[in-house]
């Protein structure tokens, strides 16, 4: 094995994702105002690192998603999108970028979706313990009146009518708040100590910024429901599979990092 090949490898992380590293890498850099650009090995386009996912190779040359962007070794960067991951797998672009045969897990995109959802839950738990998040219709409405709410999360399996009413209230009272409907009620409630939650508000600050990064990446893997109302909303990634396919034959070392 050559020295250069060995440097590309990394110790495999827990496949569920490194929840303990939510303060590091991509999220920490974005929260501190540092968001360097990386080149996607599929589209060949440069995008902010916070909108992408880094991959490394473990000692057995298995592709591993490095969601916190902290693992050692040469990184391969892809836009945070299920279509992009599946295109890279189908066109064997991980092999081309790594310049050798690699193993791509069959459930790579699904595993990333699960891990991103867990990272969002971890950050919600941190926000609750820091007094930066509340859940429940009445508490959220009160915060919209009195607090600088930066993020409004609604359960994706909640009542469409109820979520629309809350979205309209947020548009009028906290137009700056991004609205996200990517976690289901059980996923929202669990980190907040509830069996289920339909509405969660997060106060402006570092935790809200980090949650915005992670929900934006999760949006590339989970399509949010259609909730009416004006104001910024976290939606699926702007690059579709068609645009990602352009130039894919030239995947290579420029995306490393």
What this model shows, in words?
By secondary structure, the chain is an alpha+beta fold. The chain has two domains: 3-112 and 239-255, Hypothetical Cytosolic Protein, Chain: A (2-Layer Sandwich); 113-219, 60s Ribosomal Protein L30, Chain: A (2-Layer Sandwich), CATH 3.30.1330. The protein contains ten helices and nine strands. It has helices at 3-7, 25-31, 82-90, 93-98, 108-129, 137-146, 160-173, 185-189, 206-219, 241-245, and strands at 37-39, 46-48, 52-57, 63-66, 76-79, 133-135, 149-154, 178-180, 199-203. Strands 6-9-7-8 form a four-stranded mixed sheet, with helices on both faces. The chain has a three-stranded antiparallel sheet with strand order 4-3-5. Strands 1-2 form a two-stranded antiparallel sheet. It starts with a helix and ends in a 12-residue tail after the last helix. Mean pLDDT is 81; it is low at 1-31 and 226-255. Residues 1-10 have a biased composition (Polar residues). Residues 236-257 have a biased composition (Low complexity). This is YlxR domain-containing protein. InterPro entries: Ribosomal_eL30-like_sf (IPR029064), YlxR (IPR037465), YlxR-like_sf (IPR035931), YlxR_dom (IPR007393).
């Amino acid at each position: 094995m050559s020295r250069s090949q060995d440097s590309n490898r990394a110790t495999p992380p827990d496949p569920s994702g490194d929840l303990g590293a939510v303060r590091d890498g991509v999220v920490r850099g974005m929260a501190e105002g540092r968001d360097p650009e990386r080149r996607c090995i599929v589209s060949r386009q440069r995008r902010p690192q916070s909108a992408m996912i880094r991959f490394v190779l473990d000692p057995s040359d298995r592709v591993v998603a490095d969601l916190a962007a902290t693992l050692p070794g040469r990184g391969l960067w892809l836009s945070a999108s299920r279509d992009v991951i599946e295109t890279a797998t189908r066109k064997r672009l991980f092999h081309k970028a790594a310049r050798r045969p690699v193993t791509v897990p069959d459930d790579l995109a699904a595993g990333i979706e699960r891990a991103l959802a867990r990272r969002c839950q971890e950050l919600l738990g941190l926000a609750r313990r820091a007094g930066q998040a509340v859940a429940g219709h009445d508490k959220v409405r009160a915060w919209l009146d009195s607090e600088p709410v930066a993020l409004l999360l609604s359960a994706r399996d909640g009542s469409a009518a109820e979520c629309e009413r809350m979205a309209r209230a947020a548009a009028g009272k906290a137009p700056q708040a991004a609205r996200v409907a990517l976690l289901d009620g059980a996923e929202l409630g669990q980190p907040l100590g509830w069996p289920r939650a339909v509405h969660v508000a997060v106060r402006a600050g570092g935790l809200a910024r980090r949650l915005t990064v992670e929900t934006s990446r999760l949006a590339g893997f989970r399509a949010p429901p259609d909730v009416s109302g004006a104001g910024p909303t976290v939606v699926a990634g702007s690059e579709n599979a068609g645009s990602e396919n352009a130039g894919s034959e030239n995947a290579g070392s420029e995306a490393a990092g």
